[in-house]
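Researcher: Checking consistency across runs. Here is TVP38/TMEM64 family membrane protein again:
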Amino acid sequence: MLDWMTIDNVEIVVEKYKLLGPFFSVFLTFLESFIPVLPLFIIVIANAAAYGLFWGFLLSWLGTVAGSYLFFLMIRKFGEYRIFRRIKEQTQVKKLIHWVDIRGFTPLFVLLCLPFTPVVVVNSVAGLSNIKKKYYFLTLFISKPIMIFLISYLGSDLRQVLTSPLKIIVSIVVVLVIWGIGKFIERILNKRVERDLREIEKLRRNK
């Protein structure tokens, strides 16, 4: 496998991927919103490598926003059905739903900006919360570009990244730093969720 991973072979794969057309690229990022096991990171890099930074970014952005919003609408409409009830009954999801109802736009925006956030969970929480549809669409529209652009930038100059040991190291470090920052912010948000819910519970008891 490692012997096969030459720059020429990677570029051949990218060219074959490009032949599938831009609609396939949009469809893959769209589909990832419903099937979280699909590697969004790799799909976005492939789009940028095939179509360049601008078009690769745009295709990935359109696909992931459309997919995320449709998933959100499905949860909003069918969230009480048994197929989605298991998601709603998870303790962490319940806490996040309450917190989103309290804080609204901000926690969703922060979570959606992070590349490794489980987007299915975020979309589910938003769909089960009381946030208005137009506000969630706006949240997706302005938060997703940040995450998508960071990944697209790595994929837009794939030859340079793969042929330069320094750039490979820098790219790995950047990915790890982004992942670390994401996990750090998630921990902070989780602590704030716990704190806000405790304060609400105290207020209820004092009434």
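Researcher: Does this match what you'd expect to see?
Model: One thing to look at in this run: The CA atoms of residues 1 and 60 lie 28 Å apart.
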